[in-house]
Design goal:
Distance between the termini: 52 Å
Strand content: 5-15%
Shape: elongated
Order of helices and strands: HHHHHHEHEEHHEE
Structural class: alpha+beta
Radius of gyration: 27 Å
Number of domains: 3
Largest sheet: 5 strands, mixed
CATH superfamily of the largest domain: Histidine kinase-like ATPase, C-terminal domain
């Protein structure tokens, strides 16, 4: 029976990796197609922008002879201006949407590529000449973590963005109905729609930052952690002071990502599962390793239960494996009702010493 289960696991993992390879190839094709669409849309935006400039200039010229021109000529000029501006607005929106889709596809391709890199060479040749999967708990954990992240993203998209867009459509329909019969009511609804759009835009910005803050690539892990701590404090009303020691500098990308994700998950755990009212972060940028500590005054937990997946604090076993895969260590100190202190360290290679 054990052998049968092992074979099933091997086939399941092999099937997943084959699907990942296919998905990666499809993503690459989608990226090529969307690149073509972006170029076409950008060219159309440029053309419409030039046309808008011409029509706007012509309309301004008409204004100098407004009283002497036939009413029909004036009407046609303003209709042409309105038409080109609407088309320009639509095309710009389409271009921005395509560019956003392109960035999302690039991130997806990067995740797929990393999964394939993690599993590359993990199928030794069997005696029959085929490929055989060995037990790979780390790879399985990566798969499970990726699926958990996807489920979280789906829930966030459904509960916030998708719901808000549905409300936009409803409010727009209400505005449309009142536009001619009750302009004041239409104006009120438009103001409400504008307020909702602003709130949703703010939520989307937070969502994108949580997903992958661009400043992590541009400025590094320490500025990103500072910004995230500020945002976390503003959103949850919990003070999150951060102390940084050592020589602040850029690290290898995969180390910066790991440090940020670890701290991010620990903050979420402290808030969502421990109901902490005080959280503090310490980061030490040493010459040989980077060390981070997240300490809170929350409800605490049984460490063994949490690492075995039996407690309410989630993700600690995955966080430990992620850290240890980079040669690091993670230490947890917690007791029920006595808060939590979690420290992890990751070895680094200082490029300046090479």
């Amino acid at each position: 029976m054990a052998n049968t289960a092992g074979i099933e696991n091997e086939f399941s993992l092999a099937s997943f990796l084959e699907e990942t390879q296919k998905d990666y190839e499809q993503t690459q094709r989608d990226l090529k197609e969307i690149d073509i669409l972006i170029k076409q849309s950008a060219a159309e935006v440029e053309r419409l922008a030039q046309r808008n400039s011409q029509v706007t200039s012509y309309t301004r010229q008409l204004q100098t002879n407004f009283e002497t021109l036939p009413r029909e000529d004036i009407k046609e000029a303003y209709e042409a201006l309105n038409d080109v501006q609407q088309r320009l607005f639509t095309m710009r929106g389409q271009l921005e949407k395509l560019q956003s889709d392109q960035r999302n596809l690039e991130r997806l391709a990067e995740v797929q590529r990393k999964i394939m890199e993690l599993t590359d060479g993990a199928m030794p040749l069997s005696s029959s000449g085929g490929r055989r999967r060995m037990e790979q708990p780390n790879v399985i954990r990566v798969i499970q973590t990726e699926e958990a992240v996807r489920q979280g993203l789906v829930r966030k998209m459904h509960d916030s963005v998708a719901s808000s867009i549905s409300n936009f459509i409803l409010q727009a329909e209400i505005c449309q109905r009142f536009f001619d019969v009750n302009p004041d009511r239409a104006r009120t609804e438009l103001n409400a729609l504008k307020s909702s759009a602003g709130s949703t835009f703010s939520n989307v910005k937070d969502f994108i930052f949580d997903l992958r803050p661009m400043m992590l690539d541009d400025l590094g892990v320490v500025p990103t952690l500072r910004r995230y701590a500020e945002s976390f404090q503003e959103k949850n009303g919990v003070p999150v002071p951060i102390t940084v020691t050592g020589v602040e500098r850029r690290l290898e990308s995969h180390i910066e990502v790991t440090v940020f994700r670890n701290v991010q998950e620990l903050l979420q755990n402290a808030m969502n599962h421990a109901q902490a009212t005080q959280i503090q972060i310490q980061v030490d940028m040493g010459s040989e390793q980077v060390t981070a500590v997240v300490e809170d005054n929350g409800s605490g937990f049984n460490v063994d239960d949490a690492l075995n997946g039996n407690g309410k604090t989630i993700g600690l076993s995955t966080l430990r494996e992620r850290t240890e895969m980079l040669g690091g260590e993670l230490n947890i100190q917690s007791n029920i009702g006595q808060g939590t202190r979690i420290e992890f360290s990751i070895p680094i290679i200082d490029e300046a010493s090479l």
